[in-house]
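Hi R.,

Here's the chain you asked about this morning:
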Amino acid sequence: MVLSIMGASACNNQQSKKSDDTGSVVSKPISEEPMLKRIEKSAQKDLKPCENLVKEILTTSARYRQLTKELNKAVLKNGGLYFGITLEGSPNPGQEKTWSYSKTYDFTLYEMYTDRQLNTARFSFNPENKLLYEYDEVHDQLKPIAFDRELLKKYEALCK
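And here is the predicted structure, written out as tokens:
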């Protein structure tokens, strides 16, 4: 009987430690739009003007819009918090070394859940040939995707 009481209290103790170790509780936002806008504003604040322009080239492309059309609803339905895009590599890495050096601008589209970040697509913009690519994991290759070529004029003026 003593052993069963000790076992029950040990299990109880471990469960309380698990809840204490998780830190703050993360919950779904009440409204999905304000959360996305706050994320986008904070992410853009950290990017340099040229990187923001390359991000605009990506986010206005038909392929990116197709992938993200109903993505926020799907993420919330699956218990997630939001989706976003992050710059992982750049010819001019950030001051805080959060990005690595790359000859191309490399972005990752991700879904954020309370217990993980799920990367769903990768994109690259090559400043040498001025093309936008989506990484095809199945064939391990970059596939060119269409984008607004008018933005290249702004890119040429801003990113020399």
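One quick note: The longest helix spans residues 2-21.

Cheers,
M.
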